[in-house]
Structures are given as structure tokens and as C-alpha cells.
Amino acid sequence: MAFTIRKLKTDEEINDVAALAKEIWTEHYVPLIGAAQTEYMIAVFQSASRIKSDIAEKNYSYFAVFPDGSNEQIAYLALQPDDKGVFLSKIYVKKEYRRQGAAKMLTDFALDFAKESTRMPDSVYAKTKYARPRLWLTVNKGNAGSIEFYKKVGFVIDKEAVTDIGNDFYMNDYIMTLYFEAEE
């Protein structure tokens, strides 16, 4: 199946991604972290207002994925350049579109975005002393399918992280990294 990636620009696109996030998260994360934490994380990290804030205030770029010839969003991605390279903050695909190449296409897109971002002379990364730029992410330790996928496309587990996200909830994650060579 062929897909198109488009950067989110309008409130309608952002609202659609927030609705997609709720659908994906409810299906995928309730069995993993429970309904209460899933609902909390959707409200705090995946809402339309949070997406708008991430874009306006935190230098995030959000993208939606569409099957070619369709306006149905079936996946989304959020990237944030930082001093290490680029943080792959969000990469989520609707259940019925998994294992059809969308996640691989998104990770390839994220890697290209990271390479381009780190080349920019005014990038946050360019102002640091990191030897090798990286595309990095956090993934729940119990999310075996995603961990397997990330390893398959070249990510390695760098460390573990337990993060207090408020409301007596914690994220118990691996930090996974895909290192790449800086390009001139």
C-alpha cells in the first residue's frame, strides 16, 4: 500500500490527529498501562491543545499519514529537534494499517528529517559537542511489538527511564536510539 505524509497545518488536521490519537491509544495502551493512565495520557499528551502548544512553543513538527488517494488519517508522527539530534516523540499507526509499511516509512522519514535538521547551521544540535547525531525515542518496556520493530530498523536500547508524569502515574520506558553520521 502507498502512503502520503503531510505536515499538519490547520486546526482541523490537528483535531483529526487528536481524535486518531484517542482511537489508537485506547485500543493499544489500555491493555498495557490500564484505562486510567491511558485516559490521562491522552488528555495531557495527545490532545489538540497539547499538539498546538507543542508546535507553537516547543519546536515540534507533526505529520499525518494518509493512504494514497484518501483523506483518512491512519498514522501520525511528531518530531522535535534537540541537542542530540531529533526526538521522535510520537509515532502511532491505526491497528488495521500496521504491518503494511507505514511505520517503516515514518521511521525513514524521521531519519531523513533528523539528518536534515542536524545539518542546519542554526540547529540546536549544531551548537553542541555530541560526536554523533541521533534519532531517539522512548518506548514502554511492555510494548514488545514496537521494541522489536525499532530494533529491526536499527534502534538500540540505550537506557531505562522511569518518569513521573503526574497524577500518580509513571512511564516505565526504554530510551532507544538510532545513531547516524553527521552529513555536511
UniProtKB/TrEMBL annotation:
A Pfam family of this chain: Acetyltransf_7
Family matches, as CDD domains: NAT_SF (cd04301)
Top-level taxon: Archaea
InterPro entries listed in its UniProt record: Acyl_CoA_acyltransferase, GNAT_dom, YpeA/RimI_acetyltransf
Alphabetical keyword list: Acyltransferase, Transferase
Domain N-acetyltransferase, first and last residues per copy: 3-181
Keyword Acyltransferase: yes
Name this polypeptide is given: N-acetyltransferase domain-containing protein
Organism: Methanimicrococcus hacksteinii
